[in-house]
Amino acid sequence: MNIDVISLFPEMFTGPLDQSIIQRARNDQKIRIRLINLRDHAHDRHRTVDDRPFGGGPGMVLKPEPLFEAVESVRTPESTVLMMTPSGERYSQAVAEELSEAEHLILICGHYEGIDARVDTLVDKKISIGDFVLTNGALPAMVVIDSVVRLIPGVLGDCESPTEESFSSGLLEYPQFTRPASFRGMDVPDVLLSGNHAEIARWRKMMALERTRAIRPDLLERKTETHISHEPGTTREN
Ligand SMILES: C[S@@+](CC[C@H](N)C(=O)[O-])C[C@H]1O[C@@H](n2cnc3c(N)ncnc32)[C@H](O)[C@@H]1O
User: Fold this and answer.
1) Is the CB of 141 under 6 A from ligand 1?
2) Residue 173 C-alpha to ligand 1 middle, in angstroms?
3) Are residues 50 and 137 in the same domain?
4) Are 136 and 193 part of one and the same domain?
5) Is the CB of 115 under 6 A from ligand 1?
6) pLDDT digits (tens, 9 = 90+) for 190-233
7) Which among 24, 47, 57, 109 is least buried, having the fewest CB atoms inside 10 angstroms?
8) What is the CATH number of the domain that holds 60?
9) Burial classification of residue 99, based on how many CB atoms lie within 10 Å of its CB (0-12 exposed, 13-18 middle, 19 or more buried)
10) Distance (Å, rounded) from C-alpha 37 to C-alpha 143?
11) Which structural domain range is residue 47 located in?
12) How far apart are the CA of 134 and the centre of ligand 1, in A?
């Protein structure tokens, strides 16, 4: 997968994209990431990328010309153009899964008050990483890149498989334990030491349901709704 990031702060990406699984995916050429400095597409003496909003109001807005030029410098018919914005679709594992099948992602990171609305015409999907406001789009872009890249086949090793983790089944993940079996008076549940795989699977399913019900009941509601729409007349959770 090719990934182009358009940002005013390309330096913010060094570090997060140079470590661990993302770095390994880059070394193995599963992904190629290019960082594009938006200012390189501003052509006046001051390399201006922003201006005051028409109609008044506080702050500055990213101008359309440098953004159009930056996107058009890398866009191909295979590209999916994403804009990081609090006014976007709420990001989720389902969106990450969909994006992991793309050939080429172009991520536009905003700054200041936001982005001239005409840039929307370049964009396939607007993404919000949550109901809060950050100073610029670099962190949201890194969140998207990290969550998408780990889903590309072959990026995670066998022992890092994403199939059983939170959200992949519509539930939060069950609690995990490792050695020692007893620590400061806290014992690992007996079932996990039993070697009975059917019992372990049952326990994990029950714990995942219990945890989801306590922390994220909205996920269960969504899961039930999905089931109802796929299996008319049933309200089973699985
Ligand atoms: C200060 S924010 C602009 C907020 C904008 N005035 C608004 O009210 O929606 C600057 C940039 O940070 C990024 N950003 C901030 N919060 C975000 C979020 N929750 N999800 C995605 N991008 C975000 C966007 O790229 C945005 O253009």
Assistant:
1) no
2) 30
3) yes
4) no
5) yes
6) 999 999 999 999 999 999 999 999 999 999 998 777 766 665 54
7) 57
8) 3.40.1280.10
9) buried
10) 19
11) 2-149
12) 6
